[in-house]
Amino acid sequence: MKKGITITIIVLIVLGFAYFLFKISPQTTQQSVAGYNSALNTASFKPISSVPAFDPQTERYQGNPKAKNVFVEYADYQCPSCAAYSDMLKQVPTQFPDTVFVYRYFPLTQIHPNSVESAMAAEAAGAQGKYWEMHDILFKNQTDWSNLVDPSDVFAQYAQSVGVANINQFKSDISAKKYLAVIQKDSDQALGLNLQGTPTFFFNGHTLQNSDIPGMLKEAQQWVNK
């Protein structure tokens, strides 16, 4: 009888300890920290039939904002394919005739837990004049921060290294989700266009299928505005 009671007590202790470990597991921590992704409303979009026009007053771009042609990328800073394309896309303003390059956000929140926070980090750096520097370092070091439960300290280090002057403001802008509306707008566009992944490229509103600059150049010729 005593032996049976002892075994029961041991089983209860083991179950209690297992439950405790579950409650403090990294999975639970990840869910609590991933508030940046959960802040994005992925059901707020409306179907749209064409790529929205480029607005130089509110968007991130490289090249002449008055260029006749517009090359748009919808991307996710945590997307490996986007990182692979990032260096090549720097050639767009010079290789494509009279073309401005526009970067828009499409965070794949279901598979990339730091996609929204990294976009916020880029925007927070951009508010202090260091958008493209942060853009480049996020892609360059993508494998270092992608799997972190909380990449905020790493993002602050990147910001400091690229010359963001006020790091406290940078951190505050991210924690306050100051630029969530910017990311939400782009995400709504991507979902409204029924995009299936990242990166997705458009030239003057037409989807580009080729995966290299020469191929894209050849494909884009039919839609060049002269």
Architecture overview:
With 226 residues, the protein is α+β, with helices and mostly antiparallel strands. It is built from 12 helices and 5 strands. The longest helix has 22 residues, at 2-23. The N and C termini lie far apart (93 Å). The model is unreliable at 2-33 (pLDDT under 50).
State the shape: globular
Number of helices: 12
- Name the helicity range: 40-55%
Largest sheet: 5 strands, mixed
Write the layout of secondary structure elements.
Layout: H1 2-23, H2 26-33, H3 35-38, E1 60-62, E2 69-75, H4 80-89, H5 92-95, E3 99-105, H6 115-126, H7 131-140, H8 142-145, H9 152-161, H10 167-175, H11 180-192, E4 200-203, E5 206-208, H12 213-220
Parallel strand pairs: 2-3
Antiparallel strand pairs: 1-3, 2-4, 4-5
Helix pairs in contact: 6-7, 6-9, 6-10
Concise synopsis of the structure shown:
The chain has 12 helices and 5 strands.
Task: List its salient traits.
single chain; 226 residues; alpha+beta; Glutaredoxin; 2 domains; 5-stranded mixed sheet; 11% strand
